[in-house]
Amino acid sequence: MPTSPATLTEARRLRDHFAAQGAVVVKADVLQPADLLLDLYGEDIRARAYLTADPLRGEMVLRPDFTVPVVQMHMETYADPARYTYAGKVFRKQETDETRANEYVQVGYEVFDGQNPAAADAEVFAVIAAGLAGLPLRAATGDIGVLMAAVRGLRTTDDRKAALLRHIWRPSRFRALLRRYGAGEVPPLRAALLAADDPFAAAGPDIGLRSRAEVAARIAALRADAAAAPLSSDETALIDAILGLRATSPDALSVLRDIAVDMPSIGSAVRRMEARLSAMAARGIDVDRLDFEGSYGRTSLEYYDGFVFGFYASDRPDLPPIATGGRYDALTARLGQGRAVPAVGGVIRPDLALEVGKC
C-alpha cells in the first residue's frame, strides 16, 4: 500500500525532531527472524504478525515494530547512554477490526540510559508530546510495573505467580486465573484426571511430541497447584483496586501509597512513579491533569514492564492512539543475554497526526 507524500513529509519532520534531541537515525530490515518473536511472545504472535518462509533464512516475519531490532542493535554496541530514532512501515494483522490499517508508518524515539530512569521516562513523554504540539489530544498513562510487583508479592506458589505474570497482557485470562486461584476451584475434567491413581491407565498410545515423562511432570505440577491454598480475598481485592484505578496522577499516587501499606511489594514501583511525576513536572508537564489508569497498556505488545503512555484524539474516539510508548527494561535483558540496560521509548503515527490536525 503506497504511503501518501504528506505522511512521508510528516514522518521526516518527526524524525528530525527526535534527531535534534541527540538521537541517532537508524534503520531495521523489513523482514525479521520469526524465531526471536516466537521465543519472546509465544505462538500467539502468529495471530498478530505476518509470517513467511524463506528458503535460506527460515521463518521470517514482516516487521511488527522497530523496538525489538533496535534493542538488538543497541545490545551489540554497548554504547550507554544512547538515543535512537527511526521511521518506516510496520505490519500488524487486524483480524477483529477491518477499519484499522494493517500497515502504516511509525516514527520512534528510544532512550537507553540507566543513570536516571525517572528522568528518561519524563524525557520520552515530553519529546513525544512536543512532536504532537498543537493537536487536540489527551494523554493516558499507566504503570505495568506496579501490577507486576503486586503479583510477585502475592502469598501463593511461584508457579501461580508465573502464570499470572505471563497473562498480564491477556486481561480476560488474567482475571479468570485470579478468580480460580482465589476460589480454590479445580476444573471438573482436571479434577477427574488428578483423582486417578494412574492417569495413564485409560490412555491410548503415545502421540505428539511430548514424552510420557513430560506428561507425568505436567500432571505432578497440576496436582501441586490443586493442593495449593487459595489466594486470600484481601490480596485479590488489592489487585482489583489496582486494576480499577482511574484518576489524575497525583490522586492515583495517593491511592497506590495507601495500597502499599497492605501490599508492601509495590512500594518500590510506587516510589518510581513518584520520581517520574516529579521529573515530568520539571519538564513542564501538567501532571495534576495527567490521567492514570491502573490497567492501561495491558493489550500492547508484551515487552512493556513499567511506565506506559498513549496520546489519543480528543474528538475522534474512533481513531487508534496517535502515539504510544513505555519502559521495557526486561526486554533488554532477554536480548542482551542477561545484560540489562534500562530503556524507554515511544512511537508516533504520522498519518494519524495529520488526520487529527484536520479536525
From TrEMBL:
GO terms for cellular component: cytoplasm. It comes from the Bacteria. This is ATP phosphoribosyltransferase regulatory subunit. GO terms for molecular function: glycosyltransferase activity; histidine-tRNA ligase activity. Residues 11-170, 219-346 form the Class II Histidinyl-tRNA synthetase (HisRS)-like catalytic core domain. It comes from Yoonia vestfoldensis. InterPro entries: aa-tRNA-synth_II/BPL/LPL (IPR045864), HisRS-like_core (IPR041715), HisRS/HisZ (IPR004516). Keywords: Glycosyltransferase, Transferase.
